[in-house]
Amino acid sequence: MALQIRSLFADRIGQLGTENAFKIGPHIVAVENSGKKVVRLNLGEPDFNLPEYVKDEIKRQLDLNNTHYCDPKGLLSLRQAIAKQMQSMRSLTVSPERIVVFPGGKPSIGFCQEVYCNRGDEVIYPSPGFPIYESFTRYLGVTPVPMHLKEEHGFSVSADELSRLITEKTKLIILNFPSNPTGGVATLEQLEALADVIKRKCSPEVRVYSDEIYEYITFDGCKHVSIASLPGMEQRTIISSGFSKTFAWTGGRIGYAVFPTEEEANVFKNLNINYFSCIPPFNQEGARIALEHPQSPAVIEKMVATFQHRRDVIVRKLNEIDGITCLTPGGAFYLFPNIGGVCQKLGVIDAYDRLPAAIRQRTSPSGMFQMFALYNHQVAVMDRNSFGKIGAEGQHYLRLSSASELSVLEEGVKRIEAAIQDKHGFASFIADRAAELL
Ligand SMILES: Cc1ncc(COP(=O)(O)O)c(C=O)c1O
Fold first, then answer.
1. Is the pLDDT reported for residue 1 higher than 80?
2. Total structural domains in the chain?
3. In terms of domains, do 206 and 82 share one?
């Protein structure tokens, strides 16, 4: 019998998206290897260190040999601490049995699509939004339904827009406040309007996935409100959060989700068993200390005040640049300037229209500016399409992270401004390097 040639990878693997914040790394290395230092405004992690008392607890746990398999749902001690936080932060009384610990805030995004959605079911998610929401949809055969956040509405989710997108096939509605990449925060009134639409139009089995990983990073005295705290929403909402942003601990890989029922939590526990058995117990005890330690509120407050000051300075500087408009974000540590004017002035839109179709498919005007700014002016930022591609045509934005010293941020903005004025450089970049770099 002749050997049949088969493709190496399963079809679904071609459908999986990615997080470009990780993909831009090799480009930065390539520029730095050529001897030029890059100003990195692409990073999605706070530029602070894990508090000493958390590190001390992790070291202590290692010395106690707390290095073995543990409860796949997460240590009870940590889940109890999370339950207390749910009470104090959201006025919710949650049994630890409804809580599951994951390696970061990220895994529950894909797991939820896997657990709640059949092929053909629809997932509504914010766009621009964290890329993993969209990335998993086609991989799992789920239909992606982007909910486009509009600058003119402060990048918030409008209840009317949500209402229009809900169909009989809707199974999961993803919300993210404070938002990555826009820094948008929903007011209580906006959340109430969303909750009303959801309760009116969705059957009780439709779940809201509320990604609240930036819950502590809110500005101007505003406090985070969870949609789960609104009447009738706790039983429909999965609250997801973690330790990566609040405690500047992206390498710790500790996140968690609170599920409407214990039954649901147990399904996720079984996914944990199937995928990775459990999360390192010494880090989980560190996370527990992070939540319980009396110094934590002051540590977080200091970090948030620093982000707010940087935001104020950089938003002002960005808005002084001809061709850029930038809203003032209410939370998280990102700025999301509109560079539509820049794309026109620098000839990016024209250059995009003239690209061969194959290259055009891989990029966008803001993606072209991103690569030009990196290779010719040594400043790394993220482009609009890094935050959901479907239906994003004609939207020209960048995401800048404010997770760097103010002097570094100011230098970054200077370089962006220099890139904007470098019309000749942009034309040469497109002529010489478009095929290779875009
Ligand atoms: C909105 C949002 N959700 C989830 C995550 C994932 O966080 P973690 O690193 O804890 O997996 C991020 C990280 O950038 C994020 O921005």
1. no
2. 2
3. yes
Q: Which domain holds residue 102?
A: 68-292
The DSSP bridge pattern shows strands 255-258 and 99-102 to be: antiparallel
**Per-residue pLDDT for 225 more than 90?**
yes
Lookup: tokens for 249: 């601990």
Count the residues in the chain. Answer: 438
Domain check: are 204 and 336 in the same one? no
Distance between Cα 268 and ligand 1 center (Å): 18
Which ligand 1 atom sits closest to the C-alpha of 250? Answer: 9
Alpha-carbon span 323 to 346, nearest angstrom: 10
Q: Are residues 180 and 279 in the same domain?
A: yes
Q: Are residues 105 and 157 in the same domain?
A: yes
CB-based pocket (< 6 A), ligand 1 = 44, 104-106, 130, 176, 180, 211, 213, 242, 244, 250, 255
Distance 213 CA to ligand 1 centre (A): 7
Of 132, 213, 334, which is best to mutate to test ligand 1, by the most ligand atoms within 8 angstroms of its C-beta? Answer: 213
Q: Is there a domain that residue 45 lies in?
A: no
Q: Which two tokens stand for residue 243?
A: 């330790």
User: CATH code at 194?
Assistant: 3.40.640.10
Q: Ligand 1 mean position to 76 CA, how many Å?
A: 23
Residues 102 and 210 in one domain: yes
| Residue 49 falls inside a structural domain | no
Q: What spacing in Å lies between the alpha carbon of 40 and ligand 1's midpoint?
A: 18
> Residues 276-304: what's their mean pLDDT?
98
pLDDT at 196: 98
Cβ burial, residue 51 (10 Å; 0-12/13-18/19+): buried
DSSP string, 21-87: HHHTHHHHHHHHHTT-PPEE----S-SS---HHHHHHHHHHHHTT--S---TT--HHHHHHHHHHHH
Mutate to test the pocket of ligand 1, among 23, 45, 106 (most ligand atoms within 8 A of CB): 106
pTM: 0.96
Boundary of a domain, candidates 292, 320, 337:
292
Q: Which CATH number do you get for residue 29? A: 3.90.1150.10
Digit-coded pLDDT (tens) for 163-182: 999 999 999 999 999 999 99
- Model pLDDT for residues 20-49, shown as the tens digit of each residue: 888 899 999 999 999 999 999 998 999 999
Residue 277 has pLDDT above 90, yes or no: yes
If we measure between CA atoms, which residue out of 173, 241, 247, 183 comes closest to residue 208? 173
CA of 432 to the centre of ligand 1 (A): 36
Q: Is residue 44 part of a domain?
A: no
Q: Please tell me whether residues 410 and 392 are part of one structural domain.
A: yes
Over the chain, what is the mean pLDDT?
96
**Is 31 contained in some domain?**
yes
